[in-house]
Design a protein that fits this description.
single chain; alpha/beta; Fumarate Reductase Iron-sulfur Protein, Chain B, domain 2; Rossmann fold; four-stranded parallel beta sheet; 20 helices; globular; binds iron/sulfur cluster
Length: 364
């Protein structure tokens, strides 16, 4: 197996360190020591030395990491355990040791172009997208997660841009961003090809607005790290809505609702945007933040992992509802379809879940 020197160094740094053990959102649900950066590093470092096979148990452990970067953010000495979690996925896949529960997703990608298979049918979305089939300067990129379970939310995003008078395009044959394949397989040719194909599509527009935080991170950070660039201006949906409020294209009437924003890790630790969603929600009402916010956010959902660890993903979302209620909040707002879906499945009685576009639409 081929591991980079950076990957080996990182695993060696983490394998005897306990310092970030409290931070892993997966470990905090399972309660298992195996779900820490340190435990994963310990087993992988033995594999990297050639002293053990990368067997099923180690492969399972590698796929139990959400690649959320909370441990990286917490690390006082600057190590990034995402490096070995992602690189070992590539080695697992290339060695033909992909866990059986991952294979159906890769097969669906081969058959349909998405790891989730055929798109969700939704008449309201089809009608809304059809209103924006013509080519314009701005692409609203919906993304794989929203197209497979959260199209009802994407309809609201389209409605909001219509209210702002934006002339934009929604593609019926939208390419995947490459995010899901990169998550499952790491830096393999197929993931790069998907990112390049998506970048070529983005390049046909002046501006691309990413509805989901995960796709924004892939296009704005991960693809660039792999040397894949595009000429279009790339922006996250919350940042674009903040801009539309700033320029008065959206005239928001401030109400008395208290909003608790669930920062997507891809937005904060990925493209370092902790400000724009709060600008948007502050225009709509009062903010009621949880303790761990911004770059310190805690994952509240992961749609790919929900395919093979559904109860753990629900557990993460349930914990975030507790965090929200502990601060006196009851209205959670999301900017990521995967987190919306997990929070929706675990919403306590008496609480409300909104997407950021729903929060704004309610104040127009
Ligand atoms: S990421 Fe940092 S704190 Fe966490 S195990 Fe590695 S060296 Fe320790
Ligand atoms: S990247 Fe996230 S899920 Fe993976 S070990 Fe670090 S904190 Fe846990």
């Amino acid at each position: 197996m081929q591991f980079s020197s950076k990957c080996r160094e990182t695993a060696d740094a983490c394998r005897f360190c306990w310092m970030c053990r409290h931070i892993c959102p997966i470990g905090n649900v399972t309660g298992q020591e195996r779900n820490t950066a340190r435990a994963r590093a310990l087993s992988l470092s033995v594999v990297m030395r050639g002293a053990a096979e990368l067997d099923k148990d180690i492969a399972d452990n590698v796929y139990e990491c959400a690649l959320c970067g909370a441990c990286t953010e917490d690390c006082a000495t600057g190590w990034d355990p995402v490096i070995f979690a992602r690189e070992s996925r590539r080695e697992i896949v290339l060695a033909g040791r992909t866990p059986a529960y991952i294979m159906p997703m890769l097969e669906r990608f081969g058959e349909s172009g998405s790891i989730y298979g055929a798109e969700e049918e939704n008449d309201a979305f089809a009608a809304a997208a059809a209103r924006h089939a013509a080519k314009t300067d701005i692409l609203l990129y919906i993304g794989e997660d929203a197209r497979h379970g959260a199209k009802k939310n994407a309809v609201k995003a389209i409605e909001l841009l219509e209210k702002a008078g934006v002339d934009f395009t929604v593609l019926c044959d939208e390419p995947v961003s490459g995010r899901t394949l990169y998550f499952l397989c790491g830096d393999v040719k197929e993931a790069r090809d998907a990112m390049e194909a998506a970048a070529n599509t983005y390049g046909e527009y002046k501006k691309v607005v990413f509805y989901d935080a995960g796709d924004a991170k892939t296009a704005m950070q991960e693809a660039k790290e792999l040397g894949i660039d595009c000429a279009a201006a790339l922006v996250s949906f919350p940042a674009y809505i903040a801009e539309l409020i700033d320029t008065k294209a959206l005239k928001v009437n401030k109400g008395d609702k208290k909003y608790t924003f669930q920062d997507p890790a891809a937005l904060t630790r990925g493209i370092e945007d902790t400000v724009s969603p709060r600008k948007v929600l502050s225009a709509c009402g009062e903010l009621c933040d949880m303790l761990l916010i911004g770059k310190a956010t805690v994952l509240a959902g992961q749609k790919i992992m929900a395919e093979y660890m559904p109860e753990t993903v629900k557990g993460m979302a349930a914990k975030r509802w507790v965090d929200c209620k502990n601060m006196g909040g009851s209205v959670m707002v999301t900017a990521d379809s995967a987190e919306y879906l997990a929070l929706e499945a675990t919403k306590p009685d008496g609480c409300e879940l909104l997407t950021i576009e729903e929060a704004v639409l309610q104040c127009l």
